[in-house]
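OP here, attaching both records as promised.
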Amino acid sequence: MSIGRLWLPSFAAALLTNITGAAVFAQMVIPDPNLILHDAKHKEPKSGIEMSGNNIVIRSGVGTPTTINVLSFSRDGKLLAAGKDFGRVVLWDVTQRAFLCALDTGQGIVRVVAISPDDQLIATAGTDGDPNIKLWHLPDGKLRKSFYVGHPAVQKLAFGPEASSLLVAENNGVTYVLDTTSGNHKLELPGERGPVLSTDATTLMTMSDTSVIFRSMGDWQQQKVLPKPAKLAIPLSLDMRLDTYIYGDYAEEYSFVAVRASTGEILPNSRPVNLPKSNPSTGYFASLSPNSGLVFGHTGGRLWAWDLKTGKTCISKVLYSESGDINPDGSLLAGAIDNSIIARDKTEPGVGLWQTNSIREACGLQ
């Protein structure tokens, strides 16, 4: 979400560091990205945030054109999609480190994107515009289909094993699997929220009011049920090979907690106290890296890494964004980089790419 809507009040402390130079967070040791991807040159709409003398003017209902609300890698890690304000979706070929195409979705603030397993389709949804789910062909960016959503905004999109199955979570608590061929619902998941796919795309995890539910992605059949670890737990990441899932605890100032997926046991070195907190209205990212066992996240305008073995963390400089993602094998981390109108050092907005091994080494993580 852009700083002009809900990001500014929740991020006041971090912005203050940029003005005064006082460190809010002790660890600021994550190096600069190995590479920055940029949008193609285009005519941008006028930003909804302006300076008038010493005052910040925020125009209601208007976004900021450089804001990236969501990042999502493809299943094979070759493509990276960014959902932006003013309905723009940008795709890069990560293997070539090159701009691929851009979509004008007409969906206002694009909050969710998902690339099909065969890299042939991308699903998008947003707010303050067309609320429906749209399916586009790649790489030509032609609209294939539109699926009616109605008033509720879509919070999550994720393709199943094939492009014909699209997992949808709406913000009214409705979760279902959409058949992208017929438009029918293949599966309804009443009372289940926060769907998360495991890093190897074999398992679906959701949470109800009392339980954590695991399902096979192959046939959507329930595998097991565990007690919910906290009343206001929100699932964020699952890795079956590491036998671990991560959730955010809204009751504990949006802290992050690591849990053993097989038993529901809270792991040692869980609940790191010095990670930037998140405002759920702005969106955030946290995910396990399967090749290292580290957790990477992007909250409070900063990118961070968390070593589950030692509890050690490290944190980046202010990036003025909440969006990030990690590729399926955990080797590459993407984090959105934006500017603030009160930032001392201006930088060109884009998407930073970090080799996770370089972060691990620079931060002294195991």
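Record two, same layout:
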Amino acid sequence: MLHDGDGLYSRGFSLLGMTVTLKANRCELLSDDEYFLGKGARLHSLLSNFCKLKEIPPEAGSDLTFSLIDSPASPFGFSQSAQGKYLITGPIMDYESASKNKRACIFGNMGLFSKILVRELECKGVYSIHSTSFYDRKNNRLYIVMGGSGSGKSTVLLKAISLGGIEVFGTELTHFSITGGRTKMHKGSLWQNCRMGNLVFDFPELLPRFGLQTPAGDPWHTYESVSLMDMQVGEDDFDSVPLVLVMPRIEGERRNASVRPVPATSVLGALFQNLSDKVSPPTLLWGKYFVPSIDTPERQTARMEAARNFLGEAPIVGCRSVLSSPQTCLNGIFPLENIDGYLDSQEGQDE
């Protein structure tokens, strides 16, 4: 961390080719490595959203500059002065110290800075799919399991791990960029925030593998941050790898799996909504201050175009919706030698 002549502390990172400079008038605001480097395997770590934040010297011309000015006597304020330049002012230290939920603090994985990272990555041409993802090396397919909170995408990843034969590519976000008609997929996060109920009742065989024990309280209200780095894909990027898109809805009491092709007319809207999940919603910072959405009509237009390009250019070999229990969520999808075709044209309906 550097300290300049203006009384500001600075810290630099790079993320997927984007340079980031953090500035603050209090060094404590930038020194918590539970957020940036994942120390302590905390639920609030940014590494549960992104693969890695590589520490670099702060740069004057960074793609993103995020400044924090702690001023106990001033009201809370948030502003964007120019492209890639953001400022928060007010009694920041008081709010950060008093908050009982670090995930909703500025640098928490559900906080404002995470949304800004996703937005600014988009400005650099890197888009973020709200998904878990895993690679089937035997058949050379990358599975992208798309879904919002509660859809069951984490359950599908846990099922794939329990089956074996896969390598983890992302636990919460998977990124892509398109250059010259070629789609490059970029590795996402490798820390999984697991709801313990999923492990205790659906995949108890994974508890010893993750070094976990059954919690004393209600497992459905208990989360643990689990490192999947020892299961990760060796490559940081895939260039034009065949993709299988999966859209799950997991119901614990369901017996049989209903797997259906997703019609091409339905995929575009679903993908656009998914790409917006981590940037468009407003933020309730510290559970106290409402920060309006940082999304804009211009960014939404660019995101829709990115979704169209992805569906038109990426080597998608199948897209399936899955309505199932945790144990049957990959039936008919993985492992599978010959998934049939691209996006299906016939109309389909979920049950």
